[in-house]
Specification:
By secondary structure, this protein is α+β, with helices and mostly antiparallel strands. It is built from 2 helices and 2 strands, in the order H-H-E-E. It has a domain of about 45 residues. The protein has a two-stranded antiparallel ribbon with strand order 1-2.
Length: about 110
């Protein structure tokens, strides 16, 4: 009887240990694996007065990405225009290979490119 009781207690204790082991995605105590620490968004200003006004659009280091973007779709890399990365290729008037300007909140495939 003693042997049976000790065997039963051993099985229950081992089963209890295995029952408490859960995968991380099922364990409510695990919530921060591979999570980056939070940080404040900051933008530098040229002068202390601009920083005190706290209007990020007045900073010379701020550039809005809103507006029309110019695209030039090519079928293969060999067809990419020379010096496509230079700012002189981009202008408010779409000329040359940059024939299509689309708004930033859209998809190129839906605008006819």
């Amino acid at each position: 009887m003693k042997k049976t009781m000790s065997l039963l207690l051993t099985c229950l204790s081992v089963a209890g240990v295995y029952a408490q082991t859960k995968p991380d995605w099922e364990n409510p105590e695990v919530f921060a694996i591979n999570k980056e620490n939070t940080r404040a968004t900051s933008l530098p200003y040229a002068t202390e007065n601009q920083a005190l006004q706290n209007e990020y659009k007045t900073s010379p280091y701020f550039k809005s990405l809103n507006g029309n973007w110019q695209f030039c779709w090519v079928a293969k890399v060999a067809d990419v225009p020379a010096n496509f990365f230079e700012e002189s290729n981009y202008s408010p008037i779409t000329t040359g290979p940059w024939k299509k300007a689309i708004p930033t909140r859209s998809m190129a495939s839906q605008t006819g490119l």
